[in-house]
Amino acid sequence: MIVDRDGNITIIAQEKASVKTLVNNIEVGYHKYKDYHLIVRLSSLEKIQLEDVIEFLRLSNNHRSAKKSFVIVTSQADLDQMPDELAIVPTLQEAYDIIEMEDIERDLGF
Q1: What is the mean pLDDT of residues 7-14?
Q2: Which residues pair with 4 in a beta bridge?
Q3: Which domain of life is it from (predicted)?
Q4: Which of 70, 72, 90, 109 could be bridged to 63 by S-S, CB 3.0 to 4.6 A?
């Protein structure tokens, strides 16, 4: 797991670990990330299945309830099959755009 910070955003890149291992590692170290918007990059995985992203659902819901963005970046998923509760985008730039839009919505009280 590679962790990088960009202002108020933490970017977690997945190396060779399984999705379950990655989610577990994020949950164990969550106290380090809870005050930042999170971007999880899954670029090292060849194909992302629905059951893989479902692993992030609880973590995403908890993070979003604390008024922080949680975005998954992968170009290897069929976005039409992914749950609407998760923000999943194909590029890192789109993840930044989602966070910016959600910040604006939070500032406006939506």
Answers
A1: 92
A2: 11
A3: Bacteria
A4: 70
d(CA 92, CA 39): 8
> For the segment 15-57, what is each residue's pLDDT rounded down to a tens digit?
777 888 889 999 999 999 999 999 999 877 777 778 888 889 9
At the second CATH level, the architecture of 2-108 is 2-Layer Sandwich (3.30)
In angstroms, the CA 48 to CA 59 distance is 18
| Half-sphere exposure (Cβ direction) of 71: Cα atoms closer than 13 Å | 24
Query: What is the DSSP code string of 26-62?
Result: HHHTHHHHTTSEEEEE-TT-S-B-HHHHHTTHHHHHH
User: For tokens 């962790």, what's the residue?
Assistant: 3
Phi, psi of 90 (to 5 degrees): -80, -20
pLDDT of 59 reads 93
Angle subtended at Cα 104 by Cα 100 and Cα 110, rounded to the nearest 5 degrees: 130
Token pair, residue 41, equals 């990059």
Q: Where do the structural domains in the chain lie, given as residue ranges?
A: 2-108
